[in-house]
Amino acid sequence: MHIxxxxxxxxxxxxxxxxxxxxxxxxLAQTFAAHPGGKAFNLALVTxxxxxxxEVNVLAALGGEDDFFSQHLRRVLADEGLGTRYLCxxxxxxxxVVGIVTAPGQAGLEQITMAYEVTGRALNFANLxxxxxxxxxxxxxxxxxxxxxxxxxxxxxxxxxxxxxTLLNTAPADHLAGKLPQLDLSQVDYWxxxxxxxxxxxxxxxPPDSHDVTQLKTGLADLHTMTRIPNICLTMGExxxxxYTPQHVVHAPAFQIPVKNPVGAGDTLxxxxxxxxxxxxxxxxxxxxxxxxxxCACQDNVAIGEHVTPATIAALLTEQGATxxxxxxxx
Length: 331
What we know:
The chain contains 8 helices and 15 strands. It is α/β, with parallel strands linked by helices. The longest helix is centred in the last third of the chain and has 18 residues, at about 310-325. The radius of gyration is 19 Å and the shape is globular.
């Protein structure tokens, strides 16, 4: 099994505060950590750790040999057993650096993200020529790169391997605002988005009430009509996720655990989901495992993947699996 992730690889600077003070010019962080990040890296790392027999490669843009962070990221990927042959070097440019500030808030742990993005969108059509598409079984692409490049990658994969799985993760969604109706998404099998992306993309829609089942089903049906993507997953944090197909809609609840750090939980859900779908697990079982993996990711204080292991997921499923089954619903 060969999974390719496509998007950003960055250095994440993580600051945790006692509370957010927006009007203060200087805020003192309780903790600070720097570690590799970016959605392509997160997705690849979780996939490799949960499915160690899987070949995982990363298609992303980094700086050249003169950039310290880019060289460090290449070494980290290699040390984690991730394929680096599709990393694209841009001499004279720097690796993306992302600052993430978290603090307790009324709705749980609030997050502010600031990005210094130099190479993230440098990935282009020519970079796709280096991929042996016939060997790829699944492609996960994110909107950290230009959407046109991502869609071309989906088309090349489907042409080389019609049975391959393609998944679009629309984070960050800002670059897609207003473009959605004009895009050809016919090569996308699965689409994962969250509340904030829903609000950004489906204007003038706003995120629907998570308890209004009729509104949720109508909104997802409208998304399907607009995009023709056959499988749409709307993630809702502590409210779980909704899975839409034209035939049915299901609600997968979230596992109930204290959230220490939500960074990377969505990427973890996607990686776990794709691995299970490729293994031809039933949708219910795939969602069950992916939901547990995402919950485990919320226990990571620093780097994604620290608590996301087959053993921790199995323990959570043993502890709360029966409760999850009781609350799983076909709407």
